[in-house]
Amino acid sequence: MRLTQLLSLYALALAPAASGCSGQASQPDLVVSSDPQLAAIAADLLPNLAERAGMDLSDPVRLETRSREELVNYLSVKLDEDLPEAEATARRDVYALLGLVEPDLDLRNLLLDLYTEQVAGFYDPDSTALFVLADQPKAAVEALLLHELVHAVQDQNVRLDELTNPDLGNDQVTAAQAAIEGHATLVMFEYLAEQVAGSRINLSQIPDFESQVRPALSGMEEQFPALEGAPRIIRESLLFPYLEGAVFVQRLWADGERHNPLGPMMPSSTEQVVHPDAEGAIGLTIVVDEGKVVLQDGLGAFELQVFLEEVLDIPGGTAGEGEAGTLAAMWDGDTYVLIESADGDRHLVWVVVWSDGEGHEVFAQRIESHTDSWGAAVSVDRIVLEGRSATVLKIGGSVNATVEAVATGL
User: Are residues 231 and 291 in the same domain?
Assistant: First the structure.
């Protein structure tokens, strides 16, 4: 579920307090800030982090402190910009019809609760500035900066706001966020591991990295009540970029080269985050001959797996694993349209394309055996697109819809 533009709020939960700066001579000219002490901490960290990130540091980073009230107000404004009330309601309705959230969920208030309970600072691509909470102790600020300064370096090498442009669609934006957040998370972990070990460490060469990082990141839910109490689809969507993104970048660097995860090797779908060798998805559009199209987007392979586990009771677990992960790996593209009829009722048409015909058969059978899991009446059909089986799922009423493959840059 694409929730908001890039907001990195988890650094303090993701890592223990930093054990000290790199020990390099302070370079205040690397940072522009009204807080000299904060500028000195950041300037000491920046060269090391940029080197680990495999990116050039070309310009000073703007860094400022803000009160909690100012940060919360800022998040409220960003939420208004990125997720207006009408879109929030539409996205809630889609996931409610799919059986993933309750139909009366107040999505905007939930997101604001999630962000404000965790906010300690973030990098804002719009203003190319990094903001941190003013009342944080020094050790906490260092831990936060280890993650957020990587975003500042990233933004000097690529346009983060372009990579996460909502017009790209939910799945592609989530994949981009995974590359962005995974990159920053891996660099942060590597720095902290080296501080503990007292010697140079290259996490890209750790063979059991996944088994170590997953428990560390998965345990975040217990630290934040709002996150722990949120519907699973929201929890998983918020955590995916950090967890699976870190694993993706670690695999990308396994050959010893610090490849740019935001360049040509950046994943274009969540399937490619989990399965880097996966091919690009089929672009789809749905045309309806009646009713008003309120929203058109897609779930992607990752959210499909959550759906398979949560609604259809297919065994799964970690992204790409279990029976649900195997079925989600057959995903070759999807899209949905939320339609409002003349009487004000909302209906959903969802199309999933499969790389293997077995995908449709298993999916359709499970849907038909779980007719009580949905937010409305359900029908399921099979069509063929680009020589591949596709499932057409209609929820909430019969709608005449035409599905077409479209050109895509994926």
Answer: no
- Overall pTM > 0.90: yes
Q: In terms of domains, do 112 and 205 share one?
A: yes
- Judge if 169 and 291 occupy the same domain: no
Are 75 and 197 in a shared domain?
yes
Q: In Å, what is the CA distance from 20 to each residue of 23, 145, 200?
A: 8, 12, 15
pLDDT in the model for residue 409: 52
Q: Which residues pair with 284 in a beta bridge?
A: 405
**Helix, strand, coil % (nearest 5) of the chain?**
50, 15, 35
Q: Are 339 and 346 in contact (CB under 8 A)?
A: yes
HEC letters along 363-390: HHHHHHCCCCCCCCCEEEEEEEECCEEE
Q: How far apart are CA 314 and CA 1, in angstroms?
A: 20
Domain range for 107: 11-267
Q: Are residues 115 and 240 in the same domain?
A: yes
Domain count, the chain: 2
Sole residue written with tokens 């310009």: 59
CB 360 within 8 A of CB 332: no
Asked if residue 327 and residue 196 are part of one domain, the reply reads: no
Query: Using one digit for the tens of pLDDT, what is the confidence trace for 42-66?
Result: 999 999 999 999 999 999 999 999 8
Burial class (CB in 10 A: 0-12, 13-18, 19+), 185: buried
Q: Is the confidence at residue 11, as pLDDT, over 50?
A: no
Same-domain check for residues 27 and 164? yes
Give the residues across from 340 on adjacent strands: 292, 346
Q: Are residues 283 and 219 in the same domain?
A: no
Cα dihedral: 12, 216, 249, 315 (round 10): -130
Question: Once rounded to an integer, what is the mean pLDDT over residues 85-104?
Answer: 96
Q: What CA–CA distance (Å, rounded) separates 219 from 336?
A: 32
